[in-house]
Amino acid sequence: MRLPIVAGNWKMNTNIDQAVEIAQEMRGRLDKLEGVEKVLCPPFVSLSAVRKVISGSSIKLGAQNMHFEEKGAYTGEVSSLMLAGLCEYVILGHSERRQYFGESDEIVNKKVKAALKAGLKPILCVGERLEENEAGKTEEVVTRQIKGALAGVDYSESLVIAYEPVWAIGTGKAASGAQANDTIKLIRSALAKLYGGESAQNIRIQYGGSVTAANIGEFTSQPEIDGALVGGASLKAAEFLRIVDQTANAKR
Predict the structure, then answer these.
(1) What is the number of domains present in the chain?
(2) What tens digit of pLDDT does each residue of 41-89 get?
(3) Is 94 a catalytic residue?
(4) Tens of pLDDT, residues 94-136
(5) Measured between alpha carbons, how far is 38 from 111 in angstroms, rounded to an integer?
(6) Which of 37, 109, 178, 221 would suit a FRET pair with 78, their CA atoms being 20 to 30 Å apart?
(7) How far apart are CA 208 and CA 134, in angstroms?
């Protein structure tokens, strides 16, 4: 059995005080929820403060991005060495990074390698755009992204994949549970070609894209889906707690 994982991506929201307030509101109840791994991913500036809030609990901390170089003249960037010891997870290849900052599969590949080298656990995001989905290119796109991002990367139990159809992110239009499950099967097949069937079965794959407490059950009831990467709903403590609780119950 793969342990489900629910990660909250707060994106570019909250100042430090607000991030601390949300983490404090979640900590007690979130810590008590068993059978699911829980990860909070606040902005860089709040990582240290949120870390203090969740210290000593079962809640893990994640960053939203990182540079692939360990150090150097990259003004405004944050490296894996800066994150190592501060957080455990790091989101890589998110569609917003690909769309707004021009991140290619090659760049994502460098980041995955750098994260693993530093002992961080990557949450690798893949997903197709609306026009690609409508053109029947979903399998082609996600397979290319998996192969590109993991080229030369040895199998690691630390790796988590997040399937996030771009057309469902922040739009309120989530994929159906069946759609997401079918695509995640394709992703697992691509992983099997890289690492073998048994290893592919051990890699956790989340769904992300307009996940809410109202629809999480549709996804977690699917056999291939191992939790969720949650965006806007993770900024609301009560809703995020319901999402995590439903995930834990569905996968028991």
Answers:
(1) 1
(2) 999 999 999 999 999 999 999 999 999 999 999 999 999 999 999 999 9
(3) yes
(4) 999 999 999 999 999 999 999 999 999 999 999 999 899 989 9
(5) 23
(6) 37
(7) 19
Residue 152: exposure state from Cβ atoms within 10 A (0-12, 13-18, ≥19): exposed
Q: Which of 37, 103, 128, 164 is catalytic?
A: 164
For the stretch 120-179, pLDDT in tens is: 999 999 999 989 998 999 999 999 999 999 999 999 999 999 999 988 877 777 789 999
| Dist. CA 88–CA 84, nearest whole Å | 7
pLDDT attached to residue 169: 77
Hunting for tokens 């609306």 — which residue is that? 130
Q: Which among 37, 94, 218, 224 is annotated as catalytic?
A: 94
Q: Is 21 a catalytic residue?
A: no
How far apart (Å, rounded) are the C-alpha atoms in residues 20 and 122? 24
Read off the CATH number of the domain in which 170 is found: 3.20.20.70
Gap between the Cα atoms of 152 and 232, Å rounded = 34
Residue 213 neighbours by CB under 8 Å, 6+ apart: 233, 239, 242, 243, 246
CA distance 123 to 190: 17
Residue 45 burial by CB count (10 A; 0-12/13-18/19+): exposed, middle or buried? Answer: exposed
The whole domain housing 49 covers 5-251
